[in-house]
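ugh ok fine here u go
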Amino acid sequence: MKKVSFAEFGGPDVLRLIDAEEPHAGPGRIRIAVRAAGVNPVDWRVREGQVLGAHPTVLPSGVGLDAAGIVDEVGAGVEGVKAGDRVFGEGADTYAEFAVLSAWARMPEGLTFEEAAGYPSVVETALRVIDQVGVRPGETLLVSGASGGVGSAVLQIARERGIAVIGTGGAANQDYLRGLGALPTTYGEGWVERVRGLGRVDAALDLAGSGVIPELVALTGDPGRVITIADLGAPEFGVRFSGVAGSVPDALAEAVDLIGRGRLHIPVEKSYALAEAAQAHADSRAGHTRGRRVVVVRSDV
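structure:
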C-alpha cells in the first residue's frame, strides 16, 4: 500500500510517499480503507520533532491521526461495526491507503469522506479545552486563532452552551467568524485594545501559538483561566498547555449529535492528494486556515 512516512525530523521535505506493508486490526481495533485523512497541526509538530508527551515518535514514522473511510477488518472483541460501514475516527498513520483506528463512529448522514475526516481530533480538542478552561454559560470566552478547525468547533460548541465568544482572526475571516456566532476582531497591532472594546473576557484559549500568552493572562486576570494547545512556552506564565487527548469516543458521539442537529459544520478549505502531503503541512503551518485541510487518499465512494 501507499503511505506517507518520514525517517528523520525536519521540514515538509522529509515526507516521502512509500510502499509499506498493510496494517491489520488487532483486538479492539478496526481497519479502514482510507478515503480521506485530516491534516492537523500536531501532524507537522510531530514531524518537526517537537516534544509532545502524548505523541512519542519512533523513526521511521507514519503521519496522521484522523481519517474517514470504509471498514474492511474488525478486530477481536469489537461489536457494533462491520465490514462495509462508513466511519470516521482516530488512529495512527492515517495518511495511507489503509489505517487502523482505535476510536470511531458511523459517519453522519450527508457528510462526504473529506468533510468527515476533518472532525475527530478537532472536536475532541475543542470539547477538552472548553471544559479545561472552565468557561460557563453567560461568560465570555476569547479565542485567539479562531478561524481554523479547532477554533471553528469551539465557536459553535460554545454558542450551543450559551457562552459568548470573541474571536481573533485575519481580516479576510471576519465575516466567517461572525457567521459562527463570534464577536470578531483582527489580530495585529492594537488587538488587545480592540478586544477590551468588545467587553469583559472571562477565559481565553490560544489556538495559534502566536506569542500572545502574556496578553491573554492580562485580559482574563488569571493564568488559570487561559489554556493553550499551541505554545509550549506557556507554563512559564502559569498557563496550562493542553496536549493529552480526553475521550475520543465521547467526542465523536457528541460530534455526531451536533452535526445531526445542524449545530456543527466545519468547512474543508482545501484538499490535497496523498502525494501532496508536504504541501498540506506547509500550508497548515502557515496558518490563516478557514476550517479544515484534508488529504484525499481515494476519491471513489
